[in-house]
Amino acid sequence: MDDTVFALSSGQGRAGIAVIRISGPHAADALTALSGTDLPSPRKAVVRRLTDPRTDEQLDQALVLWLPGPGTVTGDDMAELHVHGSTAVVAGVLDVLGTLAGHRMAEPGEFTRRAFANGRMDLTQVEGLADLIDAETAGQRRLALAQAEGGLTARCADWKAQLVKALALIEAEIDFSDEELPEGLSDQAVSMISRVHGEMTQILASASAGEVMRDGVQVAILGAPNVGKSSLMNRLARREAAIVSDISGTTRDIIEVRLDLGGIPVVLADTAGLRDTDDPIEREGIARAKSKAATADIALWVCDLSNAEDPVWPEGLETTRRLVIGNKADIAGEGEGQPCDLRLSATTGEGLDALEAWLADAARDLAGGSGAAAVVGRARQASALRDAADALQRGLDEAAQETDGEAALVSEEMRMALRALGRLVGTVDVEDVLDVIFRDFCIGK
C-alpha cells in the first residue's frame, strides 16, 4: 500500500461542508502542496487557504487536520480537508490531488481495508461499519454499532484466551505425561471448554434474530385478485407504491417497500393475486407469489369481506406466521364474510392501527427485541461461530470418553475451534471473502 489515496468521505452533492480524506505515506506532501505552508500541529484543526500549486489559484478557505500514523483510523498518515461543500470546490480539490505524484483516487472501501490490513479493525468491526452506513432503523443502528465498536471482537478475544489456556493444559498432559504434574489439569481444561461452548451456543441462539434485524422482516401480502392487497400496501407504506385497479391481475410481479416499525426493519411485498389463469405472464407472477410466501417470515392473507366465497387460506400454502385479514369492512355488513383474524378497510384506514401493532409485535419477536442484545448479524459470522462451537462440542464428547489418545483428539478439536475464531475476526483464511465485503462500501470509507 505505497500509494496515497484520497476521496470525498462525506455525501455527494451540494452541502455546507464536505470532508475530503487523504491517507498514505504522502499525505503530508498533499497537505503542504495545497496549503503552501508547513504542517499544522498534529490533531489540531486550523484554517488554511487552499490553492492549486500549478497556478496559485485559490480553491477554498478550509479547515484542515494533520493526523500522523499509526494512531489514525487507517493506521497510515492521514490528512482531512473540511471544505465548503459546493460541487466546484470539491471537484477542484480532487483534481489537484489527482495531479500529485503517488496520489490516486481511493477505491470503494479502501480506507477501511487499510484499517483492517494495519490491525486497526478486525473483520467483524469492518462488517459492523458497513452495516452502520446502511442502517435505516434504530434497531439496525444498535446492532451495527455494537459490532463496529468491537462487541463481538471482545467476546472472541476472551474465548481465544480461555481456549489457548485449556489447550496448554491438555498439551502439558500429553507432552509431560511421565512428569509429576498437578492433578486435575484435564478437568480444568474441560471446565474452560464447556464454559466457552455454553457462551457460544447462547449467542448462536440469537443469530437468526440478528440476521433478521440486519436484513429486515420479510412480509408477504397474499390473496385472490381484487381483494385490496395493493391498497393495503399503499396504506401501510403511506404512499402510492403499487398500482391499484379494478381490473383483475393488475399486479404481476412482486413490489417491495421497506418500513420502520418501532425500530425494526420490515420489507413488505405485494404479490400477484392467486387464481387459476391461462395467461403465462400472470402464471409466472402467481408462481413468484407462492415462492415469496414460502420464504417470508410473515404472511398476510387478505380476503374480501363483501365476497362470501373468497377463500380464507388456500390449501397447500404453508407459512410459519400468518394473519388472515378481512378487507373492505367499510362496505361489508357486520359479521359478513369469511372468518378472519382482523377486519379492516384499506380505503378508510379502519383497523389499520391494529394491523400495524400486530406487525410490530411479530417483527420485534422475530428480531429478538430492539436489537441491542444481538451480537451476530451476518450469516458468515454465524457460520464461523457455529464451526467453532461444533469443534468444542466434539472435544467435550472426546473428553467424556476417557480412552487412550482422547487428549490428543481434544487438542486437535481445540485447534479447529481456534481456527474458526480466526476466520470470524479475519486473522486466517479470509482472502476469499475480503473482496466481497469491501466492494459493498461506498467510496471514501
UniProtKB/TrEMBL annotation:
GTP binds at residues 226-231, 245-251, 270-273, 327-330. Binds 1 potassium ion per subunit. Its cofactor is K(+). InterPro entries: G_TrmE, GTP-bd, GTP-bd_TrmE_N, GTPase_MnmE, MnmE_dom2, MnmE_helical, P-loop_NTPase, Small_GTP-bd. One of its GO terms (cellular component) is cytoplasm. It is found in: Cytoplasm. The keyword GTP-binding applies. The keyword Ion transport does not apply. Coiled coil: none annotated. CDD domains: trmE, TrmE_N. K(+) binds at N226, S245, I247, T250. GO terms for biological process: tRNA methylation; tRNA wobble uridine modification. GO terms for molecular function: GTP binding; GTPase activity; metal ion binding. Its main location: cytoplasm. SUPFAM superfamilies: P-loop containing nucleoside triphosphate hydrolases (SSF52540). (6S)-5-formyl-5,6,7,8-tetrahydrofolate binds at R21, E80, R120, K445. Residues 216-364 form the TrmE-type G domain. Signal peptide: none annotated. Homodimer. Heterotetramer of two MnmE and two MnmG subunits. Exhibits a very high intrinsic GTPase hydrolysis rate. Involved in the addition of a carboxymethylaminomethyl (cmnm) group at the wobble position (U34) of certain tRNAs, forming tRNA-cmnm(5)s(2)U34. Belongs to the TRAFAC class TrmE-Era-EngA-EngB-Septin-like GTPase superfamily. TrmE GTPase family. HAMAP family: GTPase_MnmE. This is tRNA modification GTPase MnmE. It comes from Candidatus Phaeomarinibacter ectocarpi.
